[in-house]
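Hey, resending since the last one bounced:
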Amino acid sequence: MAHDGHHHGPHDHHHHHHHAHAPIGHNGATATTQWQTPHLPEGEARPEAAPSEPDLDLVETAFLEAFPRAPDPTSFLRLAGVPFIGRTTDGRTLNLLRVEASQTTDVGSVTPHLGGEGFNYTPLPAAITSRRDALAFVYQSDDQTVRLALSEAKALTNVTPSR
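The structure tokens again:
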């Protein structure tokens, strides 16, 4: 098969390639790519996952499925490594108040009209409705309530006193 001006089939002669090739078959394995983009409230940035947990989205999904049914939520949080009292990198102390788990289902879409006057609403067919789960750990600091993602809560330094 010819491309880039040379042939890749059996040869009776030898020549050097001046471009890189993927492994055999040109379909070599590549690094895994995270393609999902979870929806967040407007203006809220998603924290980067810690390199030690490359499948944080899967961990978060498992947490969302199991936590509401846990017979002992306190022990569940301890096993998950979520501190009840945590310290931020800037030294603030945060106290865990609650865990918020919710599900949102999109059943319609809006499209702005040309010129910006109004919009068109369209109910979505069942095949293209979308669902997304949200998980937040609500902490209280001295002066404010703070909502953290699982990765942010786990990144706090645990200063919860031993029992």
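Helices lie at 56-66, 73-80, 150-155.

Sorry for the duplicate.
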